[in-house]
Amino acid sequence: MGFLTLALLLASLLPLVSCLPQAPMYATSRAASGCGKTQFLPGVTQYRFGLKSSGKDRSYSYHVPSDYDKNRKYQVVVGFHGSSSVGLFFELDTKMSETRYSGDKIMVYPNGIEGSWAGPSYHNGSTVGEDVKFIEDVIADVTAKLCVDDGKIYAAGMSNGGGFVGTLACDRIGSTLFTAFAAHSGAFYTDVNGPDNGCTPARVPVPILEIHGGADKTVHYEGGQGDGGPEPPITDWLDWWAHRNGCSNKSEENLVDGDVHHISWTCGGVSGFLQHYKVDDMDICSTRPRAYKSERDCYEVL
């Protein structure tokens, strides 16, 4: 799976994430203390270094719309990079800060320690608990300086970052930080042993969207041994979330000449609370039209 070439698909999913039905319980309520504070570099990505979290110096970057209004509350999307990467590369590859994708949202890009997020065996820089606390601290830091709609904070990630989005959704604290969760090619190392495996979100149902390529050669759709340990079959992982969310009325539709399969569940009486897209022949998804013969253009997929 190519990091650069799959990234645009995730960026294209932002409108879907933002339009997911709202959960009965929003992200944890926080005072929007950043409202009224002037931002001197709207439209320019800014960097926050030296954020103390669990005794470690952590960092993230953020981008506010060029026409930022200090008295208006904005939606926030937090984007989680894959392994061997940083938030800056995730931003550049996905183009999520560009107005055509972000719209009028605040974009936030946290950095995992040593280029990855806790969960897989190859990560040694932090524990799951420390990374969850870091994200809690990032959101608190962002809401202290920017005008945020705390009922519309979304998590989106790919590969290792997508797996960590799943970890957050399962965590009693992490699940309260976001309104909805989206993973692309998620490597779900912390959720491999069925629905009752320590996954304890503070609220259910949890709005979740997962997209995966059927030909993914890195995070296999069928599961198996991944780079950082065992990975669940994606169909099993979805069934576990359907169980946790108390979902019913599973529906399936084929799109794009039958190459894309959309599966949706009704959870808590709300249609589409859990959704999945499988793209049969997708391994990489190009940000450049027909860059390579084996690639599919992302706009064709959606």
From TrEMBL:
GO biological processes: xylan catabolic process
Top-level taxon in the UniProt lineage: Eukaryota
UniProt keywords, alphabetically: Carbohydrate metabolism, Hydrolase, Polysaccharide degradation, Secreted, Signal, Xylan degradation
Cellular location(s): Secreted
EC numbers: 3.1.1.73
Record field: transmembrane: none
Keyword Protein biosynthesis: no
EC class of the enzyme, as a word: hydrolase
InterPro entries: AB_hydrolase_fold, FaeB/C/D
Annotated Gene Ontology cellular component terms: extracellular region
Signal peptide: 1-19
Catalysed reaction, written as an equation: feruloyl-polysaccharide + H2O = ferulate + polysaccharide
GO molecular function: feruloyl esterase activity
Protein name: feruloyl esterase
